Amino acid sequence: MAEQKYKIGITQGDTNGIGWEIILKLFADPRMTELCTPVIYGSPAAAAYYRQTIDGLDNLPAFVEVASADEARRGKVSLVAVGPAELPIDPGHPSHEAAHAAVESLRAAVTDLREHRIDALVTAPFNKESMHEDHFPYTGHTEFLAAELAGDPLMIMCSEVLRVGLVTIHVPVSEISHDLSQEKILHALTLLRESLIRDFGIVEPRIAVLGLNPHAGDGGLLGSEETEIIRPAIQEAARQGILAFGPFAADGLFAGGGYAKYDAILAMYHDQGLAPFKALSPDGVNFTAGLSAIRTSPDHGTAYDIAGQGKADPQSMRHALYTALDIVSHRRAWSEWTRNPLQRAEREKGNRDVSVRDLPDPEKESAN
Hints:
The protein is an alpha/beta fold. Helices cover 39% and strands 17% of the residues.
């Protein structure tokens, strides 16, 4: 990974939140530029402001302003200036200006991601309500990336402790049951399995599926979704070769430690998966799987309550960067492994003119 020096784009997020603070603290560690070539998309004015709020760190990064990610150089922290030269900063308070700056940063970074100028994207948190007021017609990063990048997104929260995928994401609780279907759960299981193999290097993942209702419906006494929708989806997944199990009661699976027996958990809705995940993995990472490009983020929000006070912990941001690098490496390895095996085998031998006729005959070999 250190030799590859992948270019990783990083968005500034809400300029009144903790985004810039965790970016600055992250790259105060000079080892980060030994792992990757970082390209930050954001406001130089905001960077300068938050630099003054951080005490006790002598190695805060000196940004090199570049016109595009193409100009980023190894060993440097590059900054693509986005937005107005003068940007009002008011830590801890949402504003139209901060939301607009976050939108501009995100759009610039995704453009470079789509054009392969960067290898992956790590996004600092923004305020969804403020973004919506800035005519950003999406409920979050995931939905925006789905519209901008090829693929079908699946939110996966990941850490060294567990991975949690979500069937529904930013859906009101009152609409979750109506939004579930056997097809949707099966599709999520398929995407989750594919990501675990390609992005995390798991040969054949085991996936636990949560129920929707208390006690996973108690055989229909507390709801019918488990028997009518979720279990049939699991059974169909098994017929298609997916190692899916359940449905399990969420409280029992997490409280009893049963989650540790599986490579990932599939939750039916946002808080069902994220509440236990954040309790067990306070420095976890949000990964948007299923897309043509790679995006991760810390698993926290803008933290307005501590913004501008120098208190923000960059650990989740650090893990988001590590995860992005790991997934880039895994995807490239997977792409190489799954290329035409005949061409690959013969290329390694220095012969590109192989055909099926040149291969050993298994029946003749077994006869000998």
